[in-house]
Amino acid sequence: MFRFVARSAAGKHLLRRGYATESVPDRKVAVLGAAGGIGQPLALLMKLNPLVSQLALYDIANTPGVAADVSHVNTRSEVAGYVGEEQLGKALEGSDVVIIPAGVPRKPGMTRDDLFNINAGIVKGLCAAIAKYCPNALVNMISNPVNSTVPIAAEVFKKAGTYDEKKLFGVTTLDVVRAKTFYAGKAKVNVADVNVPVVGGHAGITILPLFSQATPKANLAEEDIKALTKRTQDGGTEVVEAKAGKGSATLSMAYAGAIFADACLKGLNGVPDVVECSFVQSTVTELPFFASKVRLGKNGVEEVLGLGPLSDYEKEGLENLKPELKASIEKGIKFANQS
Ligand code: NAI
């Protein structure tokens, strides 16, 4: 374990200026896969988050360097790096939020489901350790295919007797981030004002942006809505192809992951009305897991919000996504119960 503590005068000054740190509770965040393409910028963004007091960076390799580097940033949290399975327990102990971007990313021509064989095993192992060392933590699952890795996590936690459906989240925030960006560009509105719920799952047609509920309202033509929907669904592939074999979205994903983890921390700290979309255990449809707006609170999910009114195009998209999402969920459950 490598521990680094930043206690510079500049850091204290920065905190005092922006936040009443005295009233901010201590919160430990662990990032599993912290030396990866997502993990590194996500570690930096979590280091910038004043709600974090302890930041544990875990990977199977290269975390000492990442932790040393990030630890020099003069913000509140203490940073510790952990490398290799024997240090995983220490990394997890006492965590309030565990973010998981561990695993392999897509290459051109691959679907998220092609990652299943490798990532399912990684996620299963990490979740067994979470059940053992920090069973009360909120788990933010980034590793793909999210439509299957979240059900895998749920099964592992159930077996360990620690499952709490309020504390398991598939991170779909990047779909929301993309939908907001693409909508603002087409509707010519300020992107900072835009809100677009994205529901369903996190792969291809299972990603269903609800542009009929987008604000500010823009009265876009049906063809524009269809093109925006397709671009949001294919946003990940757009990046995979542009990176031409060098991985998938990392920077925008780190941003999205940091937004979602921040929302979880705010909820834990009792900030009211924190709402984000996430892939969670759900009764919004007949599927056991589904992404929709979720109100976050002191125990994680406070309320899974309904879909609201859908356009005919969105109703059709919802029916079309169900068979694929159902199959991905079942695949995850089957894998988790195999061995
Ligand atoms: P990467 O290959 O750059 O980094 C993955 C990291 O995980 C590596 O540092 C690797 O050493 C580590 N790792 C592997 N096995 C591990 C284990 N057992 N324990 C801890 N760490 C382990 O990949 P990248 O680009 O960071 O992507 C990570 C995952 O995030 C992929 O599954 C990718 O598909 C997914 N992803 C999810 C998105 C979402 O919207 N939810 C968006 C983009 C990517």
UniProtKB/TrEMBL annotation:
Residues binding substrate are 106, 112, 144, 178
User: Which GO terms are recorded in the biological process aspect for this UniProt protein?
Assistant: malate metabolic process; tricarboxylic acid cycle
Q: Where do the Lactate/malate dehydrogenase N-terminal domain residues begin and end?
A: 28-170
Q: Where is the active site?
A: 202 (proton acceptor)
**Lactate/malate dehydrogenase C-terminal domain segment(s):** 172-335
- Catalytic class of the enzyme: oxidoreductase
Q: What reaction does this enzyme carry out catalytically?
A: (S)-malate + NAD(+) = oxaloacetate + NADH + H(+)
Q: Which family does it belong to?
A: Belongs to the LDH/MDH superfamily. MDH type 1 family.
- PANTHER family with a match to the protein in the record: MALATE AND LACTATE DEHYDROGENASE, MALATE DEHYDROGENASE 1, MITOCHONDRIAL-RELATED
Write the protein's name: Malate dehydrogenase
The protein's organism comes out as Durio zibethinus
According to the entry, what is the taxonomic lineage of the organism? Eukaryota, Viridiplantae, Streptophyta, Embryophyta, Tracheophyta
